[in-house]
Design goal:
Layout: E1 2-3, E2 8-12, E3 15-19, E4 23-29, E5 32-34, E6 40-47, E7 54-60, E8 66-68, E9 77-80, E10 86-96, E11 102-112, H1 116-130, H2 135-152, H3 158-175, H4 181-192, H5 200-214, H6 221-235, H7 242-261, H8 265-268, H9 274-282
Parallel strand pairs: 5-11
Antiparallel strand pairs: 1-11, 2-3, 4-6, 6-9, 7-8, 7-10, 10-11
Amino acid sequence: QPHNIPVSYHAMSSKVEIIGPPTIDFSVTPTKGIMSIDHFVLSTSGQTSHLPITYQFGYLDQEGSVKFLNSRSSSTKLNTTLPMYGNQVTLLVRASNIFGDYTEKKFYVTVEPVPSTQATAVLTEQLDTMSELSGEELELQLSTYTTSLISSIDVIPSNQSSQLINSLLDVVMTKQDGLSTESQLSAVKAISGQYRLLSENSTIQTSMLLVNSLNRPDTNIDTSISVARNLANVMLSGNSTGAQKSTFTSVVNVLTNKVRQNMTDGETTQISMPYLETVIAKLDPSTVAPDSNT
């Protein structure tokens, strides 16, 4: 459906030409395949006067958010594997003109989960490929890989899932300076949602990445709080270590200060994150040293 209405206006001499969003078609072949293994060809075509059109192909993730599989380009086809499974996986194409007007069309396909006997090998190969990337290619692959990993949790033994999460966090830690805040936070949120699979090292790395994101000016506070809440669940388990607790307390301190910075003087006295504060109160005081200001 069209977006960014009203339409743009393009003046040529005394003539005014009304330019609307592109008109496009969208098809996918095949309509059924196996996640992360079978290739799907996403095809589109567009018409909009004489203006150039750029295309992006993507899908809706488990939360209904749009995740793109490629950067904007003039190419009308994308040959790709898909990072999630389901009876009705939603694929989409977005066609944009130079004024920023765009149209989206959707297509539904059936994607079967990767066989459990192949899942670990497939995900390991994808991770090795991602470790060699940078820039926008890295961010697109990070988003796709994170979705693939989370989608495969149910078919992979828990010890292998934990190891893949550790390996993914190693890559993100190494590449963090080249990742946008949004991309880094999105990956950290998805990983922390699997808190039952987080080892001591991966919990600490997730906490460190969250602190790194919080120290950036364009961080998203709501997403950061969600990650902190996931980490709090690890702290409430009976197996959390002193190092995990200490790192988590640092997260809460930085998060609290970040929230305070975005409030007026009158609002700061009302700052409250009850769940996180309750977790902090339950931690062994001999292993953590909460900031006196919190």
